[in-house]
Specification:
With 442 residues, the chain is α/β, with parallel strands linked by helices. 38% of the residues lie in helices and 15% in strands. The strands form three sheets. Strands 1, 2, 3, 4, 5, 6, 7 and 8 form an eight-stranded mixed beta sheet that branches. It has a three-stranded antiparallel beta sheet with strand order 12-9-13. Helix 2 packs across helix 4 (69-77) and helix 6 packs across helix 11. The chain is globular.
């Protein structure tokens, strides 16, 4: 039997005996807005096309859906979309079907299917989610090719790889337990108990324990954590260059890292004032793949190399990060709120802020790791209120700002059209950096 078949059998056994995630099927699911921000098709679609997409009637595939938790989050994040979850494990699919059997208003379906069999669905997808799967497969390139074959021309894939640099200590632990005879295909409760006994026996100063064994608030390390780290079958690590090599081999191109706000090199060298001139001059000369690679070498904080990609365009230049390539904002542009901000709770908070002229911190309502802290003056925040009803032109928002503050507080002169437009476009440019708003050209 080949190594790849052995590995696939081990992976199948692991998830057939213990479907993942193990969240109880009757537990209410209330995803954090930041999770929905990543899972809505609107976020990567805007990054790629600079257009706002409506998820209604879009078709979404969740590859390796496991017990269906992520599929459900995808359905919540994309109202009106049809979501199909597939997994090689019948036990996982059975759990997924039970999880959603009592829910109304979501188009969710599940099938037992491997990543290599996606063409059997007979569907072309707008969005494919392949979360926490690629790094387990013997050939991630083949899996990406299979997904690309069922992806619409403007479709988007979200996938991720384990970082070999960030996760190196767990690979040490896996090798240790392999040498001790625990890391094998039929991992079960006995092996989990032996891992716990072994790690607890180590003094806290032992390097492997210090860098991998992190009990929760109750002082425990759960069986799921042990399985997913110390005994994870098929687990492999990759680097940023590996990621770009894979995409090139398949004919896909990077749209952006899913958590792109956390890949900013600049803070790693202190403030702009403290940064050595050499660094300030050399960083802009690096391509985006080189910037990402440098970040990981310096500060490997990301367990996952989590990315969005799409069909590659022939001759397309190497991508640059969205936040360094923001579109200029003009009066005729149309402004949309990000779907995860467009809630009654956020609208009411803006109203209260405006009525009492109190600043409002946007990240209170949509917290994005690595995003800049944005505090908006209550008065100017009020000019955004119509966005909760419908998209507005920049000119309309600027006119509303003139009505809210008709006079310059210093000169008591009427605020000109140019002044109002400048203040509004400055605000929108700040919010656009992390897609709190999305600005479309006519």
């Amino acid at each position: 039997m080949s190594l790849s078949i052995d590995r696939l059998n081990a992976i199948f056994h692991q998830y057939e005996t213990a479907p993942y995630p193990a969240t109880p099927i009757d537990q209410p699911i209330q995803p954090e807005p930041s999770k929905l921000y990543q899972q809505t098709i609107a976020t990567p679609y805007y990054l790629q096309h600079r257009r706002v997409v409506n998820p209604q009637d879009k078709v979404i595939l969740d590859v390796g859906c496991g017990s269906g938790l992520t599929s459900l989050v995808l359905a919540i994040a994309n109202p009106g979309a049809r979501v199909i979850g597939v997994d090689v494990s019948p036990a996982s699919i059975a759990m997924a079907q039970k999880r959603v059997s009592h829910l109304n208003g979501v188009q969710l379906e599940f099938q037992v299917l491997s990543a290599e069999e996606l063409s059997r669905l007979g569907v072309q997808f707008d969005y494919i989610n392949c979360d926490e799967v690629l790094y387990l497969l013997p050939d991630p390139v083949e899996a990406l090719q299979t997904m690309k074959a069922v992806l619409k021309p403007d479709g988007i894939i979200r996938a991720n790889l384990h970082s070999v640099i960030q996760r190196q200590h767990f690979y040490r632990a896996q090798k240790m337990f392999e040498l001790m005879g625990l890391f094998h295909e039929n991992v079960g409760e006995t092996e989990e108990a032996l891992v716990r006994e072994t790690m607890n026996a180590m003094p806290s100063w032992v390097d492997l324990k210090a860098k991998t064994w992190t009990p929760d608030a109750d002082g425990e390390v759960t069986n799921q954590v042990i399985r997913m780290n110390y005994l994870l079958q098929g687990d492999k690590g990759y680097t940023i260059p590996n990621l770009f090599d894979m995409l090139a081999a398949v004919g896909l191109s990077l749209i952006e890292m899913v958590n792109w706000q956390q890949w900013d090199l600049t803070p790693l060298f202190g403030s702009i004032e403290q940064m050595p001139a050499f660094i300030g001059l050399s960083l802009p000369m690096l391509s985006y793949p080189q910037q990402l690679e440098l970040f990981e070498l310096i500060h490997p904080i990301h367990r996952l190399l989590d990315f969005w990609c799409t069909h590659a365009e022939t001759g397309l230049a190497a991508p640059m990060p969205f936040h360094k390539n923001l579109p200029a904002i003009h009066s005729s542009d149309r402004v949309h709120l990000h779907p995860q901000l467009k809630t009654p709770a956020v609208r009411d908070a803006i109203r209260e802020s405006a009525q009492h002229n109190r600043p409002i911190a946007i990240e209170q309502y949509l917290s994005i790791l690595g995003a800049k802290t944005i505090t908006v003056d209550g008065n100017i925040a009020a000019c955004l209120l119509p966005l909760w009803e419908a998209p507005q032109s920049v000119a309309t928002i600027a006119k509303r700002w003139q009505q809210i503050r008709p006079l310059d507080p210093c000169t008591l002169e009427p605020v000109s059209d140019e002044q109002a437009l400048k203040q509004v476009t400055d605000l929108l440019a700040t919010l656009l950096t992390d897609l709190y708003v999305m600005v479309e050209k006519p």
